[in-house]
User: Fold this.
Amino acid sequence: MNAQTQRILEKLDRHEALVTGRGQVLGQIVFCEGCCCGQTGKGFPSLPRDWLKQQWKEEKLNRSVQLTISGCLGPCDLANVFCVISSEGLQWFGGLHEQWQYDLLLDWALASRDAGVLFELPAELNHHRFERFAVPLPCENGVDPV
Ligand code: FES
Assistant:
């Protein structure tokens, strides 16, 4: 067990709140590169993984908008998928297939970094949004469905 894990376990034993040193990040963008997203050999659009990593590194964007490239996020039927995580919650997008879409996301991340606030995602991507999880049915006559 490393020192970091030891420190966390000690805090948990003392019932202390966990605090991350990376809590100043505005948000996180997670691009899927799993079994479908980015898998050109299966006929899916490519994910500009190296370009994204290079841009984020050169611009030191991880300090404000953290970049993660993940395994399968789940909704493979909407490949290529990405999501944005922030204090506002989760936003999901699918069907990315062209470089200009990634260019827009880079511009968004740069602008958010420079302003110190996470801006709304580019409106040009609004039709790529989707609901990831089931939305509860509304109550009828104030009675929850059982
Ligand atoms: S591979 Fe991207 S959602 Fe499954």
About this structure: The domain at 22-130 is CATH 3.40.30.10 (Glutaredoxin). The helical segments are 3-13, 49-58, 99-115. The chain has a mean pLDDT of 94. The two ends are 46 Å apart (CA to CA).
